[in-house]
Amino acid sequence: MIKEQILALLEERKFKELKELLETVHPVDIAEMLEDISKKQMILIFRLLAKEEAADVFTDMNSDMREYLINTLTDSELEEVMDEMYVDDTVDVLEEMPANVVDRLLMVTDEDTRKKINALLQYPEDSAGSIMNIDYVSLRREMTVEEAILKIRQVGINKETIYTCYVTEKKRLIGVVDVKDLLTAGEARLIEEIMDENVLCAKTLDDQEEVASSIRKYGLVAMPIIDHENCLVGIVTVDDAMYVLQDETTEDISIMAGVSPNEDSYFGTSVFRHAKNRTLWLMLLMLSATVTGEILRHYEEAMSVMPVLITFIPMLMGTSGNCGSQSSTMVIRGLAVGEIEFRDFLRVIFKEIRVALVVGLLLAAVNGIRIYLMYNQDIMLAFALGVTMIAVIVMAKCIGCTLPLLAKKIGVDPAIMAAPLISTIMDTCTILMYFTIITAFFRLGG
Amino acid sequence: MIKEQILALLEERKFKELKELLETVHPVDIAEMLEDISKKQMILIFRLLAKEEAADVFTDMNSDMREYLINTLTDSELEEVMDEMYVDDTVDVLEEMPANVVDRLLMVTDEDTRKKINALLQYPEDSAGSIMNIDYVSLRREMTVEEAILKIRQVGINKETIYTCYVTEKKRLIGVVDVKDLLTAGEARLIEEIMDENVLCAKTLDDQEEVASSIRKYGLVAMPIIDHENCLVGIVTVDDAMYVLQDETTEDISIMAGVSPNEDSYFGTSVFRHAKNRTLWLMLLMLSATVTGEILRHYEEAMSVMPVLITFIPMLMGTSGNCGSQSSTMVIRGLAVGEIEFRDFLRVIFKEIRVALVVGLLLAAVNGIRIYLMYNQDIMLAFALGVTMIAVIVMAKCIGCTLPLLAKKIGVDPAIMAAPLISTIMDTCTILMYFTIITAFFRLGG
Questions:
Q1: Is A259's CB within 8 Å of B337's CB?
Q2: What is the DSSP letter of B241?
Q3: ∠A251-A254-A260 over CA atoms, to 5°?
Q4: Measuring CA to CA, how many Å separate B201 from each of A262, B128, B171, B198, B392?
Q5: Which residues contact A53 (CB under 8 A, 6 or more apart)?
Q6: Per-residue confidence of chain B (446 residues) as pLDDT tens digits?
Q7: Domain A138-239 is of which CATH architecture?
Q8: B344: nearest CA partner in chain A
Q9: PROSITE patterns annotated for this entry (chains A, B) (predicted)?
Q10: Could you tell me if the ipTM is greater than 0.85?
């Protein structure tokens, strides 16, 4: 609705009203809307935005739109936008741009900012340093609360978050003061009296996902980041942490579906890139599945004696694959949120075996009755299939819960051990187990 | 390490040192440690905690431990803990307790709090109302910044978050003021001059996941919640939002693995509960798989003429299942993070068909060469399998991306349309397509 209003005002060239309307719309929503309209309209609207809002909208855009804007805006327009952006956001923008665009952007930033940007660009991808914000409020222990508030008043206007202030001594982090404590403590009290010395902090080279998880775990609004000399160099804020966690989850889910993750969005990824991300696993699994095919062929004779055997194959393979991926998924998620660790190995296996027995008995009973009724009341066949079903389910649950834990232990992403790989492995194991049990039961040649 | 230190001090009955040590440990970590030690030790340590810390630790515990504590502590001890807890946390605790425990807890809370608790307990599960915090700072438009800061000083000490203050008029929400704006604006300015009137807010009955997603999308520290008369009744804070998003993701991932989600942790769920959560889907899929079995049986004759046909079944079923779940997973995640919507239907299908053609051609080529080399250079067989492979992959990707979108459209959770269901459906479709193509190619009777 807002979108239609905006486009109508643009159409009628009522720029003043449009400008006023845009001031009431959240930058995130403006960025979202700009994605859906023509490039020409986008530029027109972008130029109408107030300086600060333009910077916010620019930060929230996707990289294609940003690149287009950078190529279209004049140097002075670009400079205005860059001036209003936070350094960490600028770095995020630069990391996605081709070299010539980066040069142009760096040319319009002042030297001080350029130095900061270059420092941040040094941190490895996915490190805490690469997502941290270098604007924060630092206090000294001997300040009074009144002086601290005065300092926030003076410098705070440029800081992305001032909810937590950091107390430093020779740049070393020695305490934290919540703005709530500043406001509720007496004005004459000293910072060192009210500061909390048990500071949770992370290192610049720590994995961004770990930092984000800690922010969630401890309910922080920001986590201070220190360098190898324990000097405070920046903070990671909760809003960035939420995005990191979302991206990492998307990555996990992709891997769990046998898709190599990439950072772009679904529509932002080209067809060939999508194909490339998916083919590797498919190829590998396709070739592994030929093993199952060869084993099947090995039992050709048994199947020609008892043709009914073939009808149970999809059911057994399907059930074992599903059972295995249920277990592996539970364990993968448990590992991801920190509930399960490798030391829980035996506890997990013991639990899964018990679950498998309960589930196996239930499925075997239902399936046995079905087979008894559908296949001339052949009680022997129903029983043999029941035994196979229980054996296959116990095996599936054991393998399913073991593989992610082993992967974690050897430093491989446990998410790889999800449905696609597990069900391919289970197919082979199931066929082997099925024919071993069946040939023993009915004394068929293997 | 800290854990060993704590237990050693407890062993030596050095309670004073232990008390001091505990003050330096984060409540979240204390709660985590208490889970790992004996109940007797837990009670001892819990009683040593300072009042406020005890309340925080209690909030962070799992429900089993809480119930044990409630049954062990005296009424006056319990009262002390409850007095320090935030009302929304108390409600979270109560929602998980059996009725007799709830009664006991309500008996030790004062009437004012009891009223608030009862009001919060009315909101449906998973609604914004059920997770909101009723402690927040409200200001009036005619206050000066100085008066506002004074008000925060007076009441703020009991409020869980004061980072954002809300401006109300006859209880209606008319604006928001960030504490940053209060600190950086001149003391004499009026709240109405500095407040932002474009307030993002949610209703008490809105889904908690939507509210949490908005908090992430707009980078808020809290979202105000209004009732049906537009009166401000509470706020949802970013730390609660992060937990909601994590729980909802875990729920999605469970459903995607064919496991009915439940709110307890992996180890906190009993074996029978685990079995119950997993059996429904397994049963359903097992019975559906019998259809595939019957279809296979229908083509018994074709397989007895060309026994090699059976060897390709696991590979084809595996590949189609994996292709289908790749597509469905991408779409399910896209829907969950709000990138894909139902109106993108045609765009998604068009993209998936192109991806399928690229992937299909590649896999068909590799597979064709393998068959040509392994099966007496039978070029006809290699070609027939190649055609089947491409057809099956295109079908898998189309069905895989369509089902989650349709589920969303009719109001069913798209996560259901993940690997287990998709691969069962794909098994049936694959067998049908395989034998249709093969019997046509080699003129075999169906």
A1: no
A2: H
A3: 90
A4: 33, 11, 14, 9, 47
A5: A22, A23, A27, A30
A6: 778 888 888 888 888 888 888 888 888 888 888 888 888 888 888 888 888 888 888 888 887 888 888 888 888 888 888 888 888 888 888 877 778 778 888 887 888 888 888 888 888 888 998 888 888 888 999 999 989 988 888 887 667 777 889 999 988 999 999 888 888 888 889 999 999 888 899 999 999 989 998 998 888 889 999 998 889 999 999 988 998 888 888 888 878 777 777 777 777 788 888 888 888 888 888 888 888 888 888 888 887 788 888 888 888 988 888 888 888 888 888 888 888 888 888 989 999 999 999 989 999 999 888 888 888 778 888 888 999 999 999 999 999 999 999 988 888 888 877 767 888 888 889 989 998 998 888 877 54
A7: Roll (3.10)
A8: A267
A9: CBS
A10: no
B194 to chain A, minimum CA–CA distance in Å? 14
Contact: A149, B183; criterion CB under 8 Å: yes
Q: What class does CATH assign to B138-238?
A: alpha beta
Record: contact B312-A293, CB cut-off 8 A = yes
**Interface touch B315/A293, C-beta < 8 Å:** yes
Tell me the nearest-neighbour CA distance from B360 into chain A, angstroms. 9
Assigned fold of B271-442: Tetracycline Repressor; domain 2 (1.10.357)
Closest by CA to B204, choosing from B117, B133, B127, B116, is B127
Residues of A in contact with B274 (CB under 8 A): 351, 355
Q: Which residues of A touch B156 (CB under 8 A)?
A: 180, 183-184
Domain boundaries, chain A: 2-122, 138-239, 271-442
CATH fold, domain A2-122, is MgtE N-terminal fold (1.25.60)
| Most A CBs within 10 Å, among B177, B287, B317, to test the A interface | B317
Enumerate the residues of chain B whose CB falls inside 8 A of the CB of residue A249.
Answer: 249
Which letter, b or e, does each residue of B312-333 get, where b requires 16 or more Cβ atoms within 10 Å of its Cβ? bbbbbbbbbbbbbbbbbbbbbb
